[in-house]
Design goal:
This protein is α/β, with parallel strands linked by helices and about 375 residues long. The chain has 2 domains: about 130 residues, Rossmann fold (3-Layer(aba) Sandwich); about 200 residues, RNA polymerase sigma factor, region 2, helix turn helix motif (Rna Polymerase Sigma Factor, Chain: A, Orthogonal Bundle). It is about 45% helix and about 15% strand. Strand 2, helix 2 and strand 3 form a beta-alpha-beta unit. The longest helix has 25 residues. The chain binds NADP nicotinamide-adenine-dinucleotide phosphate. The site of NADP nicotinamide-adenine-dinucleotide phosphate (NAP) has 30 residues, from helix 1, strand 2, helix 3, helix 5 and helix 8.
Length: about 375
């Protein structure tokens, strides 16, 4: 890419883990990218420093700013790195406006997958996944005839409790100590419960159009292999990359081409053994809850996502225990009556309803302890 073809990137959630790493990628590749706009949630001072460093004139705080900058005329790519369903409206707006949406905010597709895909169809926008697992699958699937695939397999690190038998005494500090990835607090807890893998199964369903029974996950504690595509002839193609989110972020910003990267590739001789093992659904029920919600469809995934966000927030605030997280989600989903998920208002209503019910259950659990 030369000076006059630099891609102009808007980053929503620029002060977070993904947002800051995206700025690292842009800082390392000034000939390839320029920053067209930045949005943060509340960290005004950090946002100001970022705008000064990158000479950005368009920036703002909160959901309104995210909506405005998601459709910025000057932007070639909108990277949505907001955490939670708070990012959904901006994803829809970017796709309605025909933008390339580099999507880290998986909750957009979990809660509003149908709405996002419909907006992409109508508005002409395209979604490029930033999640390392989906970036891996997209790379394995490039040029592939989809009728030759039997299964997609996502890898999970297994989180900090992969080998811990008793999860009843887990504290937020324990759960925030992820063994392989340094991420924001919400996704770190989702990784510890394995809800993250469940959300990613729903994300993969929408991105690649496969039924849920053809999307699976395995634990892979080294986090070097990120995704696998299994073909009808029992061949599997795996994608591997260093455990560094700047690799898939750069891949998303340059997709489908590749650019050189600062940093080392995997030293395979030094890696030694790599392991794969089955997910323990008894200790980690969240992945199954997500798969079930996705399979039921309608607004179930939106309710699942919202109940999870509330439960994770309550756990981080010491209001419920780690093992209460799936209990809250299951109770909320058990009561949920699905609506048509094509309608953004229905998705947002389901989200609000599920948050209310989750808050009620969390309060009841607190009163019992
Ligand atoms: N971190 C990773 O390695 C990783 C990997 C794969 C996927 N993801 C996904 O990427 C997304 C971001 O994760 P993260 O770990 O980067 O989260 P994070 O560190 O918590 O950062 C979240 C960002 O969103 C901003 N934000 C929050 N609410 C907002 C709102 N209402 N309007 C505008 N901005 C808002 C925050 O702003 P303030 O800081 O100013 O409050 C912050 O910039 C999540 O969906 C996550 O699942 C993350």
């Amino acid at each position: 890419m030369s000076e006059n073809t630099r891609r102009r990137v808007v980053i929503l959630g620029s002060t977070g883990s993904i947002g800051r790493q995206a700025l690292d990628v842009i800082r390392e590749n000034p000939d390839d990218f320029e920053v067209a706009g930045l949005v943060a949630g509340g960290k005004a001072e950090q946002l100001k420093q970022q705008t000064e460093e990158f000479g950005v004139t368009r920036s703002g705080l909160g959901g309104r700013a995210a909506l405005d900058l998601a459709t910025l005329d000057e932007a070639d790519i909108v990277l949505n790195a907001v955490v939670g369903a708070a990012g959904l409206r901006a994803s829809v707006a970017a796709l309605d406006a025909g933008k390339t949406l580099a999507l880290a905010n998986k909750e957009s597709l979990v809660a509003g997958g149908e709405v996002c895909l419909r907006s992409a169809r109508k508005g002409g926008g395209t979604i490029v996944a930033v999640d390392s697992e989906h970036a891996a699958l997209a790379q394995c699937l490039t040029g592939v005839d989809l009728s030759t695939i039997s299964r997609l397999v996502l890898t999970a690190s297994g989180g900090p409790f992969r080998t811990r038998a008793d999860l009843t005494t887990v504290t937020p500090a324990d759960a925030l100590a992820h063994p392989t990835w340094a991420m924001g607090p919400k996704i770190t807890i989702d990784s510890a419960t394995l809800m993250n893998k469940g959300l990613e199964i729903i994300e993969a369903h929408h991105l690649f159009g496969l039924d849920y029974h053809r999307i699976d996950a395995v634990c892979h504690p080294q986090s070097l292999v990120h995704g696998m595509v299994e073909f009808l002839d029992s061949t599997t193609i795996l994608q591997a990359a260093p455990t560094d989110m700047r690799v898939p972020i750069q891949a998303a910003l340059t997709f489908p081409s590749r650019r050189p990267r600062v940093g080392k590739a995997i030293d395979w001789a030094g890696v030694g053994t790599i392991e794969f093992e089955a997910v323990d659904h008894d200790r980690f029920p969240c992945m199954g809850l997500a798969r079930a919600a996705g399979t039921i469809g309608g607004t179930h995934p939106a309710a699942l996502n919202a109940a999870n966000e509330e439960a994770v927030g309550a756990f981080l605030n010491h209001r419920i225990s780690f093992v209460d997280i799936p209990v809250v989600i299951e109770k909320v989903l058990g009561e949920h009556e699905s609506l048509d998920p094509q309608d953004l208002d229905a998705v947002l209503d389901a989200d609000a309803w599920a948050r209310g019910r989750a808050a009620d259950y969390i309060e009841t659990m607190r009163m019992k302890t």
